[in-house]
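W.,

You were right to be curious about this one. When I first looked at the sequence I had no strong expectations either way, so I just let the prediction run and decided to look at it fresh. Below is the sequence, 1000 residues in total, followed by the output.
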Amino acid sequence: MFLTLVSQAWAQNQTISGKVTDQSNGEGLPGVAVLVKGTTIGTTTSYDGSYTINVPANATTLVYRFVGYLAAERPVGNASEINVALESDTKLLEEVVVVGYGTQERRDITGSVASVKSDEIQNIPVAGLDQAIQGRIAGVNVTSSSGTPGGGISVRVRGTSSISAGNDPLYVVDGVPVSNSDISQGGFGNQQINPLAEINPNDIESIEVLKDASSAAIYGSRASNGVVLITTKKGKAGKTQVDIDAYAGVQDFTKEVDFLNATEYTSIVNEARQNYMNDTGKTIGLLGAPAYNTNWIDEVTRSTASISNLQVSVRGGDEKTKFYISGAQFKQEGIILNNEYERKNLRLNLDHAVSSKIKIGTNLGVSRSTNNRIIGDNNIFAPWPNALQSRPDQPAFNEDGSYFATQRNNPVQGALEPEYETTIFRVFGNVYGNYEILPGLNYRLSAGGDWYNNKEFQYEPITSGQGFGTKGYGLAGNGTASNYLIENTFDYAKSFGDLNMTALVGYTFQEFVTERQYVEGTDFPSSSFRYITSAAKIPSGTSNWTSSALESYLGRVNLDYADKYLLSLAIRRDGSSKFSEDNKYGTFPSVSVGWRLSQESFMQDLSFLSDLKLRASYGITGNQEGIGDYAAMALINGGQNYNDQSGIAPSQLPNPNLKWEQTKQSNVGLDFGFLGNRISASADYFIKKTDDLLLSRPLPRTSGYTSITENIGSLENKGFEFAVSTKNLTGAFKWTTDFNIAFIDNKVTKLNNDEPFDRGFVNRVAVGQPIGAFYLLEQEGVYQSNDEVPEKLFAKGVRAGDVKFRDINGDGDITTGADRTFVGSAVPDYFGGITNNFSYKGFDLSVFFQYSVGNEVYAMWKELDGAGNLGAGANNNAIAKDEADDRWTGAGTSNSVPRAVYGAAGSFNAQRSSRFLEDGSYLRLKTLNFGYTLPSSVVDRVGLRKVRLYATGQNLFTFTEYSGFDPEVSSNAQDAVTAANDQATLPQLRSFTLGVNIGF
């Protein structure tokens, strides 16, 4: 009888098996809850998504639930197998963004926060993440100042906020603020390396930029220039996934600038000398027919330079432990001979739930890069500037194969003979523990840091560079920049009816240490001996160590009432060792409010409106970058001070009143969506005022000091940002568009006694002018006849065909001291980008344009080249063909480019003036990516998860009126004042790559 009852019970139940997968990729999902609807009967899926469940005879429906996916229901019927593909909850995933010390739903944000997700920057052939976000965020102006691999990048969030202190944003990787300073000690002109290039862009899950003070104030004294939050990829519960991402390709110039060949060059030099003889009646020799015709750009560059990347990543875990591991190698040849960059990365991100209340984890990145560098602009030994200036009638090599002693340093010799190697080893990351004290109340302890070692080796033989006259020159340097961070935070979340509250309090301590040493050697026995140990003389050597610390208290409260009214309050109090006891601490508060009008009853009849939120914020942030660790203190230096005797001497005056730069920012914004968010957009207007600028004030030399760092002056940025995303087509053929634009007005509002000062060769800082204002002689045209030339200038040799400058003081003469004026600015009127994404079945196409309008560039390379004086000097440089073709040759022939003339008149024409100031506006086809994903029916047969093939073009076309190689370059982009000076800077390259993504 017992056996009969058991068999009847089983007959009344029903066993169902199946598999739950991700609808987007067909992968099994572990941990999915499978429930009999209306009961507590259920099970969960195994590691591969499979499940088995016994359901009672009266069961009608199974429910499938998993975090991050839309729930699904399936009828039971008589089925013995039910397979389900769950759809990702796209709305939920898109609306959660990373903010300082946590995350927040996009709909609840009251500040100005912009995001870039991993799929937007995946497999873009660039070295650094800052290059990858160029043009993708409204109000964030990213400038690739040089085409040198691993070279420095300029990032400005809502304009330039400082003159001498730092202008780069604070970068925070997985909660750890990382270093962005170049600690190189060798001389490479103004071209710096980019420490952010050590971070692998393909490891990044998302990038959030905190633009206004209310969102950035939680980082207090370092947030005036905005904050960039970088979140790397984490593990996911489910079947372990292995991905291989690889691409390889070639690079070349985006544009070629033509220079005169040897015959044309000889002709125009002789024309210049003949004009001189006609003016003066003196006789000078003419050049004969050239024996050589050298294209120096071809000689010093590769025809194409290679670029490649290989990454292998493993991702997986279960509900308790999740992991992400990756290894990558990136290699990029420079277009200049002997120049290349290689980076290797390892990353481990691990999260583990010890219990329901305790979670621990780590985010760890390790990188090693080798940069075979070349000297850049602003250096007489640099191969690229010398290639642009060397005469075409001189050869690169003698008949015996040795280097020809050119008028300038032989560019080929300067590229091939010296050895400049910089090796960077970097470790950054953190470990954390999270404890749930009570429901909704959590304590988090995090300890981490960023350790960055920079090792340099240089050798220049007697035949090149600094080795001239010293029997060889060598340098060995080592620098280490490290910061250590410990953070304690409590966060609390609670709902009180319609009122939802989240709160955060915390304490952090961070220490920064920089240590550098180097030694120089000369007089080597031969070029076979390259290390300092073989040098006969040690002319110089030094070592130094500095440190600073930052202690911080922080808090934030977010309130949401009825999903309509939003309030956020944040405050941070920082104490810095850089300042005196009286000014050590600074307080940085912020407040922001939001009103979701679309939730109001009076808006419900507007069916086309899916979202409408008004935002307003105000806050104060600080800046302490750009000054020394002991800038407020009196310093003394030891060493050789008098008559070869050791001793100590004062080196810096104290300034106990020194304090942070302070930026006060107001922001009003509007977020709106139409037609079910088929169209979504945001608009922001901001006013950003920086006071107490950190500036070095010159002192009379009779004081015994040259300068003192003080808080002097004010700056203002105000502007408008607009970003819109549209889903134009949503069927089988999909088309989306993302567009952003920013208008920023920048100006100096106060200086010490409002006295202007010059920096560099062509820029001046003055009240009422923008940072980077060009202060030059202003060209009004070209004198068409001798009768037009003022008497004083005629006496100096100026004739018809020479440049006509504006006479500011009206004295009939032209002098740089009295006749310079403001003629333009490096600050663009507006900038931004537009992306169009298309997909159909397995095909996808992305087209991304970046633009900048209204900014000027000073073409200093023309001033340095023969193009500046068209044959004025005895030893002439190369001449750009467009300048020669457009030159004045008689009345009415040109009103912009002067005649070719030797001597004083030619030097007069070559003065620094608006003649060399050009419109730097451009529209660039930045990225074009075309891919094809093989159907799952094909890849499943060979045991793969996915296969995507793609081709990418980077910097494909640039539409610009600028006559140089690249309107974006700058000889010193890190200096806000002298940016946009093209001093023969190596341009960015165009690249073509083929790649593949393979998933197992």
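Here's what jumped out at me. Residues 242 and 314 are 5 Å apart (CA to CA). And, maybe more interesting for your project: The chain has 14 helices and 50 strands.

Coffee later to discuss?

I.
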